[in-house]
């Protein structure tokens, strides 16, 4: 189909504006302009017109009529109308781009038509644009041209090992197929069945090929005037980048001064660590508030496993065996008395049974059964008391039912305990940023655990909670429905800046 535009006095009755762009010839980079129109209010691009709006024609107009729709579809994932036009025997091409309600990206970049210019959306502007269009976050979006098969097997294996060690992901989930694991972690877009940007950052061996700027740059500045001494770039999956970056910082960027005390050599880092500080966003605390507390703020965690060995038999003849499942059931009930009857009422602890495994057949009482669960305490000595109480219960139940029972413990994260002096500095910084009335000082500590506790065992410091909002409707931490509140980003940054100023002030 051919369409014609009427001219008056050889001047076209339109100007290059919000919805119109003129180009003398086609270049593939103009896909960015199409992306910009699609993300704005739509528009038209004319190929074969100069900057003055005069038709100059294109020699390959017929070929462009076929090529452009395919390129737009393959790269941008959208459909546009491409029409062949003619004026004074000169052929040119009209690309009619409709507006799209969902964000459109060009190779991971988001472009937007504003006035007569095209702008690439970055940072906060990009976040606002995506949230306005979808209510979703940048890392949730799928990459249409990437597949699960492209993810690094070694990166996935490492994740499985690290997640199993931390205990934050269910073992059955970690043992599942890669596709099901990604679905459970919400790293696959269910509609497109494609990995999300987060999945590619975490598990792709070369995420930069699919997500622009997905690497770490480290620089060492000679002075405060911005004179760069040397720099490095770190590539690979996100976990690899972190490891490589930390290794570079330790081996190349941190300078150690060597001195001697007698015959003993001492190495003093250029930037010695005197204290450590941490921050966690916290649903349930209002935006604009921060919780800063001395002493224990998060619990230590321990995983326990109790193996029960009885004597299997036919379920119809239970008198011929020793029922391991009955002994297990008794233990589950008995364990509920550890905290309520064996600890001082002022000592907080949690003992929760989270798994029971035993048997496969419906008509057989199994030989073995196993209980697993978690113990949470704020004091190592209370952990000792809990384990001793469990041992006594196991011995009593074993004697009662004639079973063999053995308990084992894996102490993982220690309690997170803030030091008084550093907590006061954090209170001052938080008060300056949020206002004194917005600093919470008497919140109840959490029975959740935090690996920042390891740092606090080595150096004094303080771990604070930054309000993320109500957290209603199940939007709590470590929850599939959790929603990070982008509004708190500038608040957290302001706090860190003020804390540095507070700690380093003369």
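^ Assign residues to that structure.
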């Amino acid at each position: 189909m051919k369409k014609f535009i009427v001219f008056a006095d050889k001047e076209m009755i339109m100007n290059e504006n919000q919805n119109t762009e003129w180009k003398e010839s086609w270049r593939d980079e103009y896909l960015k302009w199409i992306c910009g129109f699609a993300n704005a209010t739509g528009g038209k691009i004319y190929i074969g017109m100069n900057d003055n709006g005069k038709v100059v024609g294109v020699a390959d107009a017929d070929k462009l009529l076929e090529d452009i729709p395919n390129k737009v579809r393959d790269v941008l994932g959208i459909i546009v109308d491409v029409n062949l036009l003619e004026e004074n025997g000169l052929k040119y091409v009209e690309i009619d781009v409709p507006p799209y309600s969902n964000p459109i990206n060009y190779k991971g970049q988001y472009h937007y038509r504003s006035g007569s210019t095209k702008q690439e959306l970055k940072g906060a502007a990009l976040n606002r644009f995506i949230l306005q269009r979808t209510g979703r976050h940048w890392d949730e979006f799928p990459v249409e041209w990437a597949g699960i098969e492209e993810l690094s097997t070694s990166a996935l294996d490492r994740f499985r090992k690290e997640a199993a060690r931390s205990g934050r992901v269910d073992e059955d989930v970690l043992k599942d197929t890669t596709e099901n694991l990604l679905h459970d972690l919400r790293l696959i877009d269910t509609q497109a069945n494609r990995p999300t940007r987060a999945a590619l950052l975490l598990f792709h061996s070369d995420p930069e090929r699919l997500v622009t700027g997905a690497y770490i740059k480290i620089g060492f500045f000679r002075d405060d005037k911005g004179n760069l001494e040397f720099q490095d770039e770190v590539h690979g999956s996100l976990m690899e980048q972190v490891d490589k970056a930390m290794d570079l910082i330790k081996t190349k960027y941190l300078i150690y001064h060597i001195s001697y005390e007698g015959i003993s050599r001492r190495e003093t880092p250029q930037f010695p660590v005197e204290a450590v500080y941490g921050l966690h966003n916290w649903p349930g605390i209002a935006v604009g508030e921060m919780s800063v507390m001395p002493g224990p703020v998060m619990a230590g965690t321990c995983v326990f496993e109790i193996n029960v060995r009885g004597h299997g038999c036919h379920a119809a003849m239970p008198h011929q065996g020793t029922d391991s499942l009955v002994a297990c059931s008794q233990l589950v009930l008995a364990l509920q008395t550890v905290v309520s009857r064996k600890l001082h009422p002022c000592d907080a602890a949690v003992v929760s049974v989270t798994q029971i495994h035993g048997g496969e057949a419906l008509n057989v009482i199994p030989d073995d059964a196993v209980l697993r669960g978690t113990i949470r305490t704020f004091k190592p000595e209370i952990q000792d008391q809990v384990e001793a109480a469990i041992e006594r219960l196991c011995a009593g139940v074993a004697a009662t039912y004639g079973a063999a029972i053995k308990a084992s413990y894996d102490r993982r994260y220690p309690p997170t305990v803030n030091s008084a002096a550093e907590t006061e500095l954090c209170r001052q910084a938080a008060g300056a940023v949020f206002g004194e009335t917005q600093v919470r000082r008497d919140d109840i500590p959490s029975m959740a655990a935090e690996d920042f506790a390891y740092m606090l065992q080595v150096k004094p410091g303080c771990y604070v909670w930054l309000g993320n909002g109500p957290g209603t409707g199940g939007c709590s931490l470590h929850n599939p429905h959790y929603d990070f509140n982008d509004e708190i980003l500038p608040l957290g940054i302001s706090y860190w800046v003020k804390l540095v100023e507070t700690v380093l002030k003369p």
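Confidence is low (pLDDT under 50) at residues 1-14.
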